[in-house]
Design goal:
The protein has 403 residues and is α+β, with helices and mostly antiparallel strands. It is 33% helix and 24% strand. Among the domains are: 117 residues, no CATH class; 129 residues, Nucleotidyltransferase, domain 5. It has a 5-stranded antiparallel sheet. Strands 15-14-13-16-17 form a 5-stranded mixed sheet. The two termini are 37 Å apart.
Amino acid sequence: MDVKNAFLHGELEEEVFMRLPPGHPQSHEPDLMCRLHKSIYGLKQSPRAWYAKLSSVLTTVGFKRSNADSSLFVRTGTAGKLVVLVYVDDLIITGDNIDEITKLKHSLQQRFAIKDLGILRYFLGIEMATSPKGFFLSQRKYVLDLLKEANMSDAKPVNTPLDTKLKLSLEGQPLPNISYYQRLVGKLIYLTITRPDIAYSVSIASQFMHFPTMEHFNLVKRLLRYLKGSIGRGIIMKKNESTEITGYCDADWAGNSIDRKSTTGYCTFVGGNLVTWKSKKQAVVARSSTEVEYRAMASTACELIWLKGLLCDLGVSTTQSMSLFCDNQATIHIASNPVFHERTKHIEVDCHYVRAQVQSQVIKTHFVKRYDQLADLFTKPLASPQFQRLLGKLGSINLLDPA
């Protein structure tokens, strides 16, 4: 559902004054001002005022706001369960009772000027195809528009987003149009919502937003050539009865040749379906591969705890321990060892956090061979066979692929 003129519904708590608008009978008098009782477009307070108004309306009809995600509202009752997800003025409504959904729509239409867009098929550039077996998320039209804007609709496709022998530096010919580079990378960042295959390459390109060179622009062009050959790729989520939460974490020690910082990569699954992933450069330089892996493990543990809280708010609670897979034996031993080693004191906070989750049996750590480490995709460039193999295991498929 789409709310028309959403910000005009928000009620201001602060005192906000504005000059009289042009055309007002007294606009020529400089000392007269308007005090706003409701928000208008252009005010910094408008998004917060609209969210407060909408959340109060949903609360009055029995919804509770999720602790894990403030944009998620859930109502559980004898008639069934209703879930509302809010993104500014766009609402997704779902549940297990059609009559309750219809009543909620009617209730919202009485309070706001709101348009019913029907079954969810396209939302914020994300296309969704549904079937009894599950659903498929992609951004096909978004990719086509991006290639058209970059004048690369007829580019020659490549099999991988990055060259395995990639070596970047800060030297080189400066790019004359920095804003063009920043705009392209910004759109690529949004594309990672349904494309885990480009998460690492986009994170590399985004590190040079302040001063890109032609070398960095060529990296973005190769990424666009890869998108040309995989326009229909997206995430498939299959319907099943499992609610098991698992995660894979990996790190590339000192992989950045410029500042020797490492890259954290992780991905999480619910019921065997990929739900979240991340590729991010670590903030500090690590002194050992174990330290790097442990920082990655701590980040993944936080994501798993958040996912468990989110599912609990949705009414899906489980007492089963969450599995965390890592390809570093030393890191797994530190997580279960109650004695701190002298060389691990500088990562003591991460050690304490992960160990607390392991000892309380919220998380169980498991060793996985490097060849089967799914998070390897988010930490380094891979050759085409391994790249395609891991994508298949992540549930990323190309519907337009003839095979």
